[in-house]
Amino acid sequence: MNRLLPVFLFATVATIYAADKKTALDRYMAKPDAAYQYRLVKTQRADNATVFVLDMISQRYLTKKEVNRPEWRHWVTIVKPARVKHSTGLLYIGGGGNEDRVPRARKELVAIARATQSVVAEIRMVPNQPLVFAGEKRTRSEDAIIAYSWDKFLKTGDEKWPLRLPMTKAAVRALDTVTDFMATKKAGGVKVDRFVVTGASKRGWTTWSTAAVDKRVVAIIPIVIDMLNTEASFKHHRDAYGGYAEAVHDYTEMGVMKWMGTPEFAKLKRIEDPYEYRDRLTMPKFCLNSAGDQFFLPDSWQFYWKELKGPKHLRYVPNTGHSLGDSDAIDSLVAFYHAILNKTPLPRYEWAVEKTGAIIVRTKDKPKEVRLWRATNPNARDFRIDKLGPKWNSTVIRPANGIYHAPAARPPKGGWTASFIELTFPGKVKPFKFTSGVVVTPKTLPFAKKA
After folding, report:
1. pLDDT digits (tens, 9 = 90+) for 58-109
2. Which is nearest to 94 in space by CA: 73, 124, 130?
3. DSSP codes of every residue in 317-375
4. How many CB atoms lie within 10 A of CB 79?
5. How far is CA 425 from the centre of its chain?
6. CA max distance for the chain
7. In what side-by-side order are the strands of the sheet with 403-406?
8. Rg (Cα) of the chain, in Å, rounded?
9. pTM of the full structure
10. DSSP per residue over 26-86, as a string?
């Protein structure tokens, strides 16, 4: 089986935002690409579900003169539960390498499909990797590719370079493929034409950009990508640590941070930074972050949260790193996705941070439990899991006149304390867990005047 969609589909997507100021991302999405195609490779059986594995070519990124593999190829895995109740599906944007063999569906995705009675899909190899660029002998993967593409754009101004462009097109092509394939007789003629999109890290970043260019995306769950308003976030990172974390080494190696404050970096942000697309990103969004992330500071929300438009929910997961390993984060994802599918009202609450550093939460729906989480680093403004360890501890807090209040923390002299309030609400399939933003006390940035 080999199906090709008309190339005019991307032009249709691009015209949705004709009233907006178009960016290089919009132009890249609108550009026809005859390379796109897919074929069914394997059909598998899972518990009360059928799994289809497709081989998809999403596009050509650059040419052979610039990179060893311009044609981007992906495994697209689609899980169809025994009963499908919804025309909205879930797309998980995943990673992996081009040497990966035919995959089996992740157990978690099969479980989500069965629990929600909806089609769940994953696109892998976003980005395609490893890649070798012209003039280099080394292979590049993950952030090393992104940093290289940023460097090329910053130095040349050529908008073909930023890797967010092909990563986003790959995700949108996956939406096209799921819709087209599920409508076939082989798949049972199932209608899937709306999507909740999710992904972690740079795939979480691509979750934002996919929603910015495609109206089929009705909600998003970006995971561990706490960096909107990139320049402000990077500066905060530097002023807290006195430099940049090893996790962002690929960017420092390419000298990306040295471009901050320049017209060239401003142009890059207009393409890459989800914050620049916030007027488009009005769909429900659930930002799922780590309180001990090795890439991003836990109080990075302060640079973008108030400016996000439309329904928005937030969760910081304590005692985790960038992987969110050994946590119940996936339960939160399932609860949110199930609510979107069934148009179930999400728990209503508001939170605010006072000038003193105290956190205030007001709820309109009764939570099952409310906890105050705190972690103290006696020596540094650093809450990374691999630096501090699993030091977050919690206590149950009670409301006073319907208000939950966490007074400002009192860290030891020379130390810092991070705090947030977590609310648990009952859910249909899994409990909802949402939080306030993380507040670090004192506000002092130890290297603000030294870096």
Report:
1. 999 999 999 999 999 999 999 999 999 999 999 999 999 999 999 988 999 9
2. 124
3. ETT--TT-TTSSHHHHHHHHHHHHHTTPPPP-EEEEE-TTS-EEEEESS--SEEEEEEE
4. 25
5. 23
6. 68
7. 349-353, 359-363, 403-406
8. 22
9. 0.94
10. HHHHHS--TT-EEEEEEEEEETTEEEEEEEEEEEE-S-TTTBS--EEEEEEEEEEESS---
Q: How far apart are CA 96 and CA 389, in angstroms?
A: 28
Q: How many CA atoms lie within 13 A of 63 on its CB side?
A: 1
User: What are the helix (H) ranges across 46-201?
Assistant: 107-116, 143-156, 164-182
Q: What is the pLDDT of residue 47?
A: 85
Residues 317, 210: Cα–Cα separation, whole Å: 25
Structure token pair of residue 148: 């290289």
Shared domain for 60 and 147, answered yes or no, is yes
What's the full length of the chain, in residues? 451
Residues β-bridged to residue 280: none
Domain that residue 66 falls in: 8-277
Residue type, 398: R
What value, to the nearest 5°, has the Cα angle with vertex 74 and ends 70 and 75?
165
> Where among 246, 277, 308 does a domain terminate?
277
DSSP 369: E
Domain count for the chain: 2
Q: What type of residue sits at position 428? A: K
Q: For 21, how many CA atoms within 13 A lie in the half-sphere containing its CB?
A: 6
Query: Which of 227, 256, 277 lies at the terminal end of a domain, its last residue?
Result: 277
Average of per-residue pLDDT across 340-350: 97
Sign of CA pseudo-dihedral 35, 157, 239, 208? negative
Residue 37: CATH number of its domain: 3.40.50
Tokens of 444: 């002092």
User: Does residue 377 share a domain with residue 271?
Assistant: no
Q: Are 73 and 55 in contact (CB under 8 A)?
A: yes
Domain membership of residue 437 (yes or no) is: yes
Cα 340 from Cα 284, distance rounded (Å): 8
- Here the tokens at position 253 are 């190696």
- Would you state the structure tokens that stand for residue 251, as one six-digit string? 């960017």
DSSP 281: -
Map residue 167 onto helix, strand or coil: helix
On the question of pLDDT at 17 being above 70, the answer is no
d(CA 84, CA 282): 27
Q: What is the mean pLDDT of residues 43-52?
A: 94
Question: Do 104 and 44 form a contact (C-beta atoms < 8 A)?
Answer: yes
**Would residue 389 count as lying in a domain?**
yes
The answer to the question of residue 308 being in a domain is no
Q: Are strands 71-81 and 88-93 parallel, antiparallel or unpaired?
A: unpaired
Residue 232 covered by a domain: yes
